[in-house]
Design a protein that fits this description.
Elements: E1 2-7, E2 19-34, H1 40-106, H2 112-146, E3 169-172, H3 175-178, H4 183-204, E4 209-220, E5 232-241, H5 249-315, H6 321-355, E6 375-378
Antiparallel strand pairs: 1-2, 2-4, 3-6, 4-5
Helix pairs in contact: 1-2, 1-4, 1-6, 4-5, 5-6
């Protein structure tokens, strides 16, 4: 409804003195439909869906990276805890040996040079303990940041190396399955899709647009007049619009869209190739890590046996405490090497999960792939 004031001329009354104030009631329905003959709107919808997919896969890629960083930090903390414990054991062992050698020096059974050598090594071992504590504190603070907690309020889980386990098998994907699993590859594919749709939009912009419009309305001076069919008005029409004076702008936009598609396709290829390389490197690293860990464990076992033999000789008076100190130091060092090898193997296993697109094979429902897309291989 609108309140109006009109002169007689507006109402068709040839009397300039005639002025009327009245209410005008009206109801109107209008609709228009774009025929989309050349698919511009369809390609716009297609581009929007591809952009939505790109955002979704970016979120998934961020999540997978976050989980990998958490695992790597937990493994690093466990390794540092093991190194700190072993270093403390070395310090205690060196201190006991030093006390015995100093006692022997007082009684003339040993020379001060032997004690000085042990004091130097003990000081160096104690000096190595503080950097390990510093690295552990940094790892704990990093984990707090990753889980969204303030470092001062974070309850450290105190990860222990012996409590960490590797999966019995790891999935191994063929390249055709890998491109359906990694979020970064799928995100790059979505950008290719969006760039392709943009070419269709730019092409359609060069062609005419066809649309149909229609309207139906009723007007009256009283509200009841809206029910009178005699007061009905309607309109139906079609329109065609085409770019006539755009110059070379639209063609330049099409060429730009085509070049963007070529660039997106190149980025997709580079992302896929990088993914294949990361999987290959991770598998090779895990294979090498397994052999290295076995070698370090063998070395630790040999050092343990040597230490047992030297202790027996010391107890029988056939060897000095200096020999025992050397054997203990060698054994404790092999324990540090074993802990380092375990950290490397666990970290590389986590990197393989990242390279394969995350642990989607352990999920009941996955937005990226199904468990049938991968086979498994032993980690031994």
């Amino acid at each position: 409804m609108s309140r109006q004031r009109a002169s007689g001329i507006e109402l068709g009354i040839d009397d300039p003195m005639f002025i009327n104030v009245f209410n005008l009631y009206s109801g109107r329905i209008s609709a228009s439909y774009d025929l989309d003959v050349f698919g511009k709107n369809r390609r716009r919808i297609e581009r929007s869906e591809a952009q939505l997919d790109f955002a979704r896969y970016q979120v998934l890629d961020t999540y997978v990276t976050l989980v990998n960083n958490l695992v790597a930090t937990a493994v690093a903390e466990a390794g540092l805890n093991a190194a700190i414990d072993t270093t403390r054991q070395i310090i205690d062992s060196q201190q006991r040996t030093l006390d015995i050698v100093e006692e022997q020096v007082r009684y003339g059974a040993a020379i001060d040079a032997d004690a000085s050598q042990i004091r130097t090594r003990l000081a160096r071992t104690r000096a190595s303990l503080e950097p390990l504590r510093k690295q552990r504190a940094i790892a704990v603070n990093r984990m707090a940041t990753l889980v969204g907690a303030a470092p001062g309020d974070f309850d450290d889980p105190q990860f222990v190396m012996d409590e960490l386990t590797l999966p019995d098998t790891l999935p191994v994907s063929v390249p055709s399955a890998l491109v359906r699993q990694r979020p970064d590859i799928l995100a790059a594919e979505a950008l290719v899709h969006a760039a392709s749709a943009q070419i269709g939009i730019a092409s359609a912009n060069l062609l005419p647009d066809f649309s149909i419009t229609g309207s139906y309305s009723r007007e009256g001076l009283a509200l009841g007049d809206l029910t009178d069919p005699m007061n009905a008005l309607w309109q139906l029409g079609a329109s065609v619009s085409a770019p006539l004076f755009a110059g070379g702008r639209l063609r330049a936009q099409k060429r730009a869209a085509q070049q963007q598609y070529v660039a997106a396709l190149a980025d997709y290829r580079a992302t896929a190739l990088a993914a294949f390389g990361e999987v290959s490197n991770s598998l090779r690293s895990i294979e090498s890590d397994a052999r290295a860990l076995r070698d370090q464990q063998d070395a630790a076992e040999q050092a343990r046996r040597n230490l047992k033999t030297v202790r027996a000789r010391v107890n029988n008076g056939a060897a000095s405490h200096i020999s025992l100190y050397t054997a203990e130091a060698q054994y404790q060092q092999t324990l540090l090497d074993v802990a380092s090898a375990r950290v490397t193997r666990y970290s590389d296993s986590a990197d393989l999960f990242l390279a394969l697109g995350g642990g989607w094979w352990n999920a009941d429902t996955s937005p990226l792939a199904t468990p049938d897309d991968a086979t498994t291989a032993s980690v031994d």
